[in-house]
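Hypothesis: this fold can be encoded by more than one sequence.
Test: take the structure tokens below, design a sequence, compare later.
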């Protein structure tokens, strides 16, 4: 697989054009469905004074949406410099008081050097990366309380869609690929790191798992 043998393929795939498109979609329609599911589950937990680490933060929607919940600070980590810059501008334009730091790089490589956070989120990120164990191991290592992540459901129609999507990337000579990872494999990474599943929700294409430290 070509993604992330050196600099992550996501870094060039998630370019300024896509960041602009995501920003306009968010401004018109609010958070996408997977983000809405994740936010609604996270909001069930007390957030006051906690630190959030959003991995694969994109344009910073989760940090923005949770800004009013009394978080002490947020860290946005992303492999794409263009998305991280878009997130920085987006957050600054919407909430100058939010304490945010921005970490560029492949999270599988940067996780070890990041400070711990109470809550770690990955919204539609594991599907961008071949080594899901490395991403989730990193998330579990940094999370004091909760790891919540959304992922494409392991269903035939989702897999079929990804085959078409990946053929399109191949045709365009884009080394980025999208992945449907096994929910069992992902669960076993978090369980071996001492987490228990507190919620699982599924919509047509996306699922959410929320784990808390046992
Ligand atoms: C599909 S976008 C989702 C963005 C945002 N979480 C959302 O749901 O709107 C995936 C994001 O994850 C980032 N990403 C993918 N693999 C990554 C990795 N290994 N480390 C850090 N960020 C990664 C990409 O650069 C991109 O911004």
């Amino acid at each position: 697989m070509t993604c992330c043998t050196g600099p992550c393929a996501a870094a060039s795939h998630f370019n300024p054009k896509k960041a602009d498109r995501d920003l306009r979609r968010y401004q018109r329609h609010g958070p996408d469905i997977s983000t809405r599911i994740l936010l609604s589950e996270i909001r069930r937990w007390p957030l006051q004074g906690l630190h959030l680490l959003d991995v694969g933060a994109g344009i910073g929607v989760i940090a923005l949406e949770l800004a009013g919940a009394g978080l002490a600070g947020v860290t946005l980590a992303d492999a794409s410099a263009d998305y991280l810059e878009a997130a920085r501008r987006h957050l600054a334009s919407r909430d100058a008081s939010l304490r945010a730091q921005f970490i560029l790089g492949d999270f599988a490589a940067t996780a070890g050097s990041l400070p711990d956070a109470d809550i770690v989120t990955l919204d539609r990120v594991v599907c961008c990366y071949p080594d899901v164990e490395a991403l989730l191991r990193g998330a579990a290592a940094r999370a004091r309380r909760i790891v919540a992540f959304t992922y494409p459901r392991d269903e035939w129609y989702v897999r079929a869609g990804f085959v078409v999507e990946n053929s399109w990337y191949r045709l365009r000579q884009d080394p980025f690929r999208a992945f449907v990872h096994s929910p069992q494999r992902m669960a076993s990474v978090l369980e071996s790191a001492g987490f228990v599943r507190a919620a699982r929700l599924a919509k047509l294409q996306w699922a959410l798992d929320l784990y808390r430290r046992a």
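The mean pLDDT is 94. The chain is about 40% helix and 25% strand.
Hypothesis status: open.
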